[in-house]
Amino acid sequence: MNCLLLYYTGTFNTRYVTDKLQTRLQALGWNVDRYEIDPTNNERLDFSRYDILGLGYPIYGYCAPWPFLKFIRKQKFPKGLKAFIYKNSGETEKANDASSKYFLRKLRWDGVKVKNEYHFVMPYNIHFKFDDQTVREMLAMDDKLMDILVYEVSHGIPNMKGYKIWPRIVSTVVSRPQYIGGSVNSFLYRVDPEKCINCDLCIKRCPTKNIYRNGKGEIRFHHNCLMCMRCSLYCPKDAIYIGFLEEWGWKVNGGYNFKKIEQMELKPVINKDTKGFFKCYIETYDNINRRHKEIFGE
Q1: Which pairing describes strands 82-89 and 190-191: parallel, antiparallel, or unpaired?
Q2: Strand, helix or coil at 197?
Q3: Is pLDDT of 17 > 90?
Q4: pTM of model > 0.85
């Protein structure tokens, strides 16, 4: 089976999931290529030699991010190509269910057969930082969901469900400000010269080349921001001010060391009595455990 994993990543969570997925599919004997979408590159790909396509993205505001949508819309897919979706976000609210709806229209118009969709849970790069033990449980559940994905996709077992009205409405309403929010908010971005160590990581890593140095050598921002938070999350000195998001207390600085967290002892923190934000995880984890047991008896 020849497979292409086509994905966009902001703070590298989707890249992490793609790494895992590629390894799992290759273990089946599949030939697996991967293509990470560059928002500054709108090339057309040749899909003719692939039997199946995996489409991966982080959910931004209950919708697929615009660089992913823009890239998909520019492609011409061969009729009859099989495909599956693997998306990720920091919460499992049902409002996320219809996040794929806009590019699904394009795929189905081209005759692509999308039969499977999976929602992986990954820690936030905005709002607040997840503690390592919660992330450890996330990664364990993601491993189980990966088992399910690989089994169902390789055995031709569909799991695609129709999107309900409420998630469709939410993704439509919230997607609009999401697409322009970065451009507007970037007028407020700035770098604290007292903290900045001139490592230029923010400039080098920005996916849209939105960050630059002016004639005086000062770091400045254009207005083509995705609000992916790659710059502020990975700034080693927490020197980047991210406008109204920071005023709301939504800034997260410091990435997650997944390799280290994977080695931690698993001590589940989500249970039937979980309240507040993480309550939505109860049903998600229950569904993953139930389906995993149906397939593997574990």
Answers
A1: unpaired
A2: coil
A3: yes
A4: yes
